[in-house]
Design brief:
It contains two helices and eight strands. By secondary structure, the chain is of the alpha/beta class. The protein has two domains: about 50 residues, 2,3-Dihydroxybiphenyl 1,2-Dioxygenase, domain 1, CATH 3.10.180.10; about 60 residues, 2,3-Dihydroxybiphenyl 1,2-Dioxygenase, domain 1. Strands 1-4-3-2 form a four-stranded mixed beta sheet, with helices on one face. It has a four-stranded mixed beta sheet with strand order 5-8-7-6, with no helix packed on it. The longest helix is centred in the first third of the chain and has 12 residues.
Length: about 140
């Protein structure tokens, strides 16, 4: 029997520069910083979207971790957002896609845009400063 009352609580991203990564999510998506616990052996910044109960935990990367810092894409180890529709990514929804696109352009973030086959949902794919894949989806009326 499956667990009852399940909901998504938080997503974690590791970084060697947690302040930089947290600032990116604040500026692009409007996350707000909330009180974070003190773990001692590593630092964290906890963020929350004001319009939801979704939290993002930005966690100091373990310096002994030998894995690459960011996935860049599932198909190639290059910074190419056109690989993200079939790669690892998080997706957010926004009510004003043009405003988000302008914010990304102002920050010099390379994007890849496409629409679902029916044309009703526009998609924008890009990377955060640590190479984590992101998508933003917006309904078109």
């Amino acid at each position: 029997m499956a667990a009852e009352g399940v909901s998504l609580n938080h997503i974690s991203r590791e970084s060697t520069d947690i302040k930089r990564l947290a600032q990116f999510y604040k500026e692009v998506f409007g996350f707000e910083e909330v009180e974070s616990p003190v773990f001692g052996e590593f630092k964290v910044v906890w963020l929350r979207l004001p319009s939801s109960l979704l939290y993002l935990h930005v966690i100091e990367r373990n310096p002994n971790n030998n894995l690459p810092e960011g996935p860049w894409s599932a198909t190639a180890p290059v910074v190419d957002p056109s690989h993200l529709p079939r790669g690892h990514h998080l997706c957010f929804s926004v009510s004003n896609l043009q405003s988000l696109l302008q914010t990304l352009k102002d920050k010099g973030v390379e994007t890849f845009e496409k629409s679902l086959p029916n044309g009703k949902i526009k998609q924008v794919f890009f990377f955060d400063p640590d190479g984590n894949g992101l998508e933003v989806a917006s309904k078109e009326d």
